[in-house]
Design brief:
single chain, about 80 residues, Arc Repressor Mutant, 2 domains, 4 helices
């Protein structure tokens, strides 16, 4: 297998966290990226499901970011709200 060098821009935090995971397996960042690329080829697409968020999900994420969602003091209170 011939190797080549490439340059990519990645999110710093994601790279650091992924690198930490790869190290636990004794892999380098380059090894991890190569595994991902091989899986893309084997699957003829992403090796995991990718979904477009629904309008409801986007609304919930927005509420979460604004800290504007409903809050509960207990699990029972939460489930009671779901039954209403």
């Amino acid at each position: 297998m011939s190797r080549m060098s490439t340059s990519i821009r990645v999110d710093r935090e994601a790279k650091e966290k992924a690198n930490s995971v790869f190290k636990q397996y004794g892999l380098s960042l380059s090894d991890g990226i190569n595994i991902f690329l091989h899986q893309v080829v084997l699957n003829n697409g992403f090796p995991f499901e990718i979904k477009i968020p629904t309008e409801e999900t986007l609304k919930a994420l927005d509420e979460l970011e604004r800290k504007d969602g409903e809050t509960f003091n207990s699990v029972d209170e939460l489930f009671g709200s779901l039954e209403d």
